[in-house]
Task: inverse folding
């Protein structure tokens, strides 16, 4: 999800694409079908969490200065660079355990 796809005032997220690994490079690609695109409403608690996440991202950007590489993604590494989707999927169960949360699939 890219920040440009987040509308905190409206409380919506626009689904316009996904990050894919192709030939060893990460690229943002449009969804394969029109059904895969759309705008979804999110809960106010999610809007608040995204707002706080954006604030922390801005602070981190100021902290590390010119080495910050803004990928424009909501979920990025601490230096702003892209997270490989495969790594995120593999690391997700451990993230849940670390926070004492029940196991769920990433896309659930």
Result:
């Amino acid at each position: 999800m890219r920040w440009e796809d987040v509308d905190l005032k409206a409380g919506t997220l626009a689904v316009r694409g996904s990050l894919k690994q192709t030939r060893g490079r990460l690229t943002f690609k449009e969804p394969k079908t029109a059904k895969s695109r759309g705008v979804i409403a999110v809960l106010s608690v999610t809007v608040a969490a995204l707002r706080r996440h954006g604030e922390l991202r801005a602070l981190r950007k100021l902290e590390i200065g010119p080495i910050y590489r803004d990928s424009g993604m909501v979920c990025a590494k601490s230096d702003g660079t892209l997270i490989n989707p495969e790594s995120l999927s593999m690391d997700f169960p451990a993230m849940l355990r670390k926070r004492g949360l029940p196991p769920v699939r990433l896309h659930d």
